[in-house]
Amino acid sequence: MTGFILYGSQASLFTGKARGYMNWKGLSFEEKAVDEVIMKTVILPHVGWPVVPVLQTPDGRIVQDTADIISEIETTHPEPSVMPAGPVQRFASLLMQVYGDQWLLLPAMHYRWNYNEDWIFTEFGRSSAPDAPASEHYAIGKQRGEKFRAMVPMLGINEATIPGIEASYEQFLSEFSAHLEEFNYVFGDRPSLADFALLGPLYAHLYRDPASREIMERVAPNVARWAERTISGQDHTGDLIGNDVIPKTLEPMFKRHSAEHIPVMEATNALFAAWCETAASGDEVPRGLGMVPFVACGCEGQTLALSFSLFRLQAALDALDELSGNDRANAEVFLTRINAEELLSFKLPRRLERKNCKLCLV
Ligand SMILES: N[C@@H](CCC(=O)N[C@@H](CS)C(=O)NCC(=O)O)C(=O)O
């Protein structure tokens, strides 16, 4: 035992991302399901708000946010690296992380809550109060899960947008499935950051929730097998693609992200700029900055302008800014091919950072 404890839950999107990564990293760790006691004695006192996953390091430090968890472990246990070797691949991995963490959230939330509601309430009850009688799990879980259910309309998931969200997700599944005909993972034959980022939405909500799994098995059994491989974290020996090549089979997925999510992040950035006008350094940034338009497969709606999406994008843009010479030219070619030229000039009006597990203005 290395002394790491991962506090989370089987039903949690971001715990799946962290668990798959830690399994692959080959660290032995204990995973503890967050019940009421852990919430009150570990999460709330150390993090300040109810969220999972949370990592406790062997020296007792508490780390929240999957990117920080990954970075903590990469620093103390650098081999094997979760990042591909090529600088453009590394930038593309961080961009895929924006997609997985922030935009595939829409299908993840839609299918969980519109196809699996009774099941997931019971599951929440089972995990947060394992000692309660089974007959009480649904009611306990409903109390705990209502706040997540309430996010569905805020994210813009409604009758008008559901056909577009479903069409886009099914097309995404087909695109990823076609890629997996060529490679076992996103950047070759072993997992890397982009796999764990996609695993978040694609595991707990879209593979593990039973009605979602039926859809994944029907549309893209290759993706279901990938989710099983990636959560188990067994593949260490395969190679990542060399020469900083980004396979063409990934382009349809990146193009989908560019078409749907970049306009949302641009509109979010405009709201952020307006908010910054009266904010001071160190201020906590609201999680939602307002509502912004989005389009998925021809269906139009309004979605919450998530400040955290800008924070994840900032990490990708930092990696882009570090490139020069041939690497920069290759990144520009990549961005042009995925219809994301806007990112070449995308600037946040102010930098963001996390302080005490909250998003703040630098
Ligand atoms: N950016 C965070 C997101 C964590 C997150 O949203 N976790 C969900 C469960 S999967 C949660 O606890 N949400 C509570 C909330 O957002 O209030 C990460 O990468 O760890």
Ligand identities: glutathione
Binned strand content:
5-15%
Determine the fraction of residues in helical runs and give it as a percent range. Answer: 55-70%
Backbone structural class? alpha+beta
- Element order: H for helix, E for strand: EHEHEEHHHHHHHHHHHEEHHEE
Instruction: Please give the radius of gyration in angstroms.
Output: 20 Å
The third-level CATH topology of the largest domain is Glutathione S-transferase Yfyf (Class Pi), Chain A, domain 2
Name given to the CATH architecture of the largest domain: Up-down Bundle
Q: What is the number of strand segments? A: 8
First CA to last CA: what distance?
A: 38 Å
**Total DSSP helices:** 15
Could you walk me through the main structural features you see in this protein, from its secondary elements to its overall organization?
Strand 7 and strand 8 (358-361) form a beta hairpin. This protein has helices at residues 13-25, 36-47, 66-76, 87-103, 105-115, 117-128, 134-149, 151-154, 162-182, 193-208, 210-219, 221-232, 251-276, 307-321, 325-337; strands spanning 4-8, 29-33, 54-56, 62-64, 288-296, 299-306, 352-355, 358-361. The protein has 3 domains: 4-76, Glutaredoxin (3-Layer(aba) Sandwich), CATH 3.40.30.10; 88-232, Glutathione S-transferase Yfyf (Class Pi), Chain A, domain 2; 259-361, no CATH class. It has 15 helices and 8 strands. The strands form 3 sheets. The chain has a 4-stranded mixed β-sheet with strand order 2-1-3-4, sandwiched between helices. Strands 5-6 form a two-stranded antiparallel sheet. Bound molecules: glutathione. Glutathione binds at residues 12-14, 51-52, 65-66, 308.
